[in-house]
From TrEMBL:
This is Ycf55. It holds the Pfam family DUF3685. The chain crosses the membrane at residues 126-142, 162-179, 293-314. InterPro entries: Uncharacterised_Ycf55_algae (IPR017077), UPF_Ycf55 (IPR022552). The gene is ycf55. Coiled coil: none annotated. Keywords: Membrane, Plastid, Transmembrane, Transmembrane helix.
Length: 322
């Protein structure tokens, strides 16, 4: 039986929010292995490091919700301040996690200079605005044409998936910023080894260098290929926690406004997708027909050749006996 998220403010909504925070925190005791097909920045951490980082993010989210309630911000205020709220959440989470491991350097987030962070902020509605709306106001205040169901009938599982995705994505940003802030591979290795946070797959400087380069390439592919394709298909990739590790799945979401904001290069890729969708079925149909014709010709040729050979053999036998 599907259970639905409360659609208005009240005791039921407060209880559901508290229960979701509790159940999510419980999942941090799982084996937090990356079971997706992509690299994550948190892959460089061991299970303990990921658990600590997730706990920091969860604590900052709790503080954020309480602050918004205390300031009595309405939904319009949250929409207007959404990017700033996300920025502050990233910065506070970064500072808190860094302080836990005596990382003295102050890391400031410069979004304009970083394509990866710009890409994350591009998705900020999915990362934060919807979650704050669900948690503080209820599902009734989500636009009715955004997801594949009526806003009042929002499944609890849907809200849980978005929440877990938010925690993992913010964690990725924190680790990305720490790695980017360190001037050398040796500093990265010293940081994760000294604090006993290192995933055994990245013990050597060479493996860390390969990890960073692979992340850089993956981010470019995500920005210019994967993201336009997801937007065009009205899909969004989310990360979630399970007993088997961190998994990925796609959810439907209306992305009309995101489509309008795409760059010319990204639109060119979407045009290529259109061409692919148009031509590939035709090419496949043509190749199928061509294959059938070739097989028909080969079969007829072999059949006629066999009949001709049999006739020649029979004719030879007849000539011998005559």
């Amino acid at each position: 039986m599907i259970k639905y998220w409360p659609y208005k403010q009240g005791i039921d909504l407060n209880n559901e929010v508290a229960n979701l925070f509790f159940s999510t925190r419980q999942k941090f005791s799982y084996a937090l292995l990356n079971k997706t097909n992509n690299l994550l920045c948190i892959d460089i951490l061991d299970n303990y490091g990921r658990s600590v980082l997730f706990s920091v993010i969860l604590m900052e989210l709790e503080k954020l919700i309480l602050d918004i309630i205390e300031l009595d911000l309405n939904l319009k205020n949250i929409k207007q301040l959404n990017s700033k709220i996300l920025y502050d959440l990233m910065q506070k989470s970064l500072d808190k996690f860094s302080s836990k491991f005596n990382f003295i350097d102050n890391i400031n987030i410069y979004i304009k200079k970083n394509r990866y962070l710009k890409n994350i902020l591009f998705e900020n509605k999915l990362l934060l605005e919807y979650m704050l709306t669900y948690f503080i106001f209820g599902s009734y205040y989500i636009e009715n044409n955004i997801f594949a169901f009526d806003n009042i009938l929002t499944p609890k599982e849907h809200v849980a998936i978005l929440f877990e995705n938010l925690v993992i994505q913010i964690s990725n940003i924190v680790m990305f910023l720490i790695l980017e802030n360190m001037s050398s591979l040796i500093n990265i290795a010293n940081f994760i080894h000294k604090n006993k946070l290192c995933n055994y797959s990245y013990l050597s400087i060479r493996s860390i260098a390969l990890f960073r380069n692979s992340l850089f390439l993956q981010n470019l592919i995500d920005i210019y290929i994967n993201k336009p394709k997801q937007i065009y298909s009205s899909r969004h990739k989310v990360l979630l926690l399970s007993a088997n590790g961190i998994l990925s799945k796609y959810i439907y979401i209306s992305r009309y406004n995101d489509f309008i904001a795409l760059s010319k290069f990204q639109l060119v890729f979407i045009f290529l997708i259109e061409v692919q969708d148009l031509l590939i079925p035709q090419i496949e149909r043509f190749l199928l027909i061509l294959t059938k014709v070739i097989l028909y010709i080969i079969i007829n040729f072999i059949g006629n050749s066999a009949i001709f050979c049999i006739r020649v053999i029979l004719s030879s036998f007849n000539n011998i006996y005559l």
